[in-house]
Amino acid sequence: xxxxxxxxxxxxxxxxxxxxxxxxxxxxxxxxxxxxxxxxxxxxxxxxxxxxxxxxxxxxxxxxxxxxxxxxxxxxxxxxxxxxxxxxxxxxxxxxxxxxx
Length: 101
What we know:
This protein has three helices and three strands; from the N terminus they run H-E-E-H-E-H. The chain is of the alpha+beta class. It has one domain: GMP Synthetase, Chain A, domain 3. The protein has a three-stranded mixed beta sheet. It is globular and about 40 Å long. The mean pLDDT is 85.
C-alpha cells in the first residue's frame, strides 16, 4: 500500500519531499493491515491552493485505494516555502481515540 500511495503522488505532483508513513500499528486493526497512513507532501503544485483543495487533490489521487484496505489518511500538504518556514518538520500524530487499543 505504501508503494502504491507513493507512486500515485510522485507521478501526479512531482514532490520536493514526500514521506508516506504507515501508522496502522497505532490503531485497532489486524496486524499488518496497512490501512492508516500519514502523508507529508511538499510540492510547488500546491502554490496558491487552499488547504482543502490540496487535501482533495491527494484524496482524488488515491480514491481507488479506499475501495481496498486503505481506511484513513492524515495529510500534511505544503509548498516548498511553507516547508522551509516550518524547518522541514511536521506534526507528530496523536494516539488513536477509537477502537479498543
